[in-house]
Write a structure and sequence with these properties.
A 5-stranded parallel sheet has the order 2-1-5-6-7, with helices on both faces. Strands 3-4 form a two-stranded antiparallel ribbon. Strands 8-9 form a two-stranded antiparallel ribbon. Helix 4 packs across helix 6 and helix 8 crosses helix 9. The chain is α/β, with parallel strands linked by helices. The chain is globular, with a radius of gyration of 26 Å. It has a domain of 226 residues: Rossmann fold. The termini are far apart. The chain is built from 10 helices and 9 strands.
Length: 333
């Protein structure tokens, strides 16, 4: 009987030892596989954006998202305020004629003033993005012939880079610049979307970063459909009071100027606010890095749980979901 018990315990011991070896082996295998997957999935990209303040809006949260997601990004932001496609190209020509011309050195990179040629050759860029200024984005004549000229100039100095369009977004419905508030709902979105797609085909640009689509998708839902504060007197505002407009993706109202009576109650209905900037950065992340942006961990404190819905709209836009206001007869790239 003692022999049988000893044999039983010896068997148990051998089984436990074998199981421990198997578990350790499995854990080691999983660890190796995880490390391999991480090394395969990790990406390092160099992206140069040519634009204006809308480019800054779209990318100011991007580096943090990329870093938190385990990737690497070198980002060049060539974004003089209000800069049009034509101005970028005109400055490039000035730089060709005289590289020291201050009017040609529109850009700042690595604490240096640079011409467009210098920006294009500062890194071996993987992508170069271009965009029209917002006030011109819905006017197709402002793209021609400058988009083609700028594209050709970029390819001359960065033949390895893919040039993509950055589709900007429409203004708030109550933004009265250029009488935009007098146009039918969706007018600006439809026109700029049509223009980006049309010019992309003409120029040979194969991809468009669908930030404008993401804004529109969000604004077509109750959560992000813009509405003015019903309890605020917009006609007789009193400093320093401001309206509550939590659904807005644009800058909104602010008191601008010096102190007290000199301050002016003004609307910025074009630029992105914090929510809009987060949405745009999410679009850029999934567009360039390919990861499902709904799974990222960076969540701005000021957005709280609402950030998840913006990530969802970014994901939908990158994966081809069209807003209800998508312009008829327009084929996406």
């Amino acid at each position: 009987m003692k022999i049988e018990i000893k044999q039983y315990f010896d068997s148990i011991t051998r089984y436990a030892a074998a199981l421990a070896v198997a578990v350790c082996s499995l854990a080691l295998t999983q660890s190796v596989h995880a490390q391999a997957a991480t090394s395969i999935e990790k990406q390092s990209l160099k992206i140069l954006g040519l634009g204006n303040s809308f480019l800054k809006n779209a990318t100011n949260m991007l580096p943090g998202i990329v870093k938190d997601s385990g990737h690497e990004l070198i980002l060049g932001v060539a974004a003089p305020g209000g800069c049009t496609i034509q101005r970028h190209y005109d400055a490039a020509l000035l730089g060709e004629a005289n590289p020291e011309d201050p009017k040609a050195k529109l850009y700042d990179y690595n604490n240096q003033k640079m011409t467009l040629k210098e920006m294009l050759t500062a890194e071996k860029w993987d992508y170069v993005t271009i965009q029209q200024s917002s006030p011109n984005s819905f006017k197709i004549d402002t793209y021609r012939p400058y988009a083609q000229n700028l594209y050709d100039y970029i390819k001359k100095y960065t033949p390895q880079a893919e040039v993509v369009f950055h589709q900007t977004w429409a203004w708030r419905p109550d933004h009265n610049r250029q009488n935009m508030d007098k146009n039918p709902p969706g007018f600006m979105y439809q026109e700029l979307t049509r223009n980006y797609n049309t010019i992309a085909k003409e120029v040979g640009i194969k991809k468009i970063i669908p930030v404008g689509n993401a804004f529109q998708l969000a604004e077509e839902t109750p959560e992000w459909k813009f509405a003015r504060d019903p309890d605020f007197d917009y006609h007789n505002p009193k400093y320093p009071e401001l309206p509550q407009e939590p659904n807005s993706l644009n800058g909104g109202f602010a008191w601008r100027g010096t102190d007290g009576a000199d301050k002016v109650f003004k609307l910025d209905g074009s630029h992105a606010n914090g929510a809009g900037s987060y949405l745009a950065a999410c679009v850029w992340y999934e567009f360039f890095f390919g990861g499902d942006v709904r799974k990222i961990t960076r969540n701005p404190r000021f957005l709280g749980e609402r950030a998840a819905s913006l990530r969802e709209f970014a994901h939908q836009a990158v994966n081809g979901t069209r807003p209800k206001a998508w312009p008829s007869g327009t084929s996406p790239e």
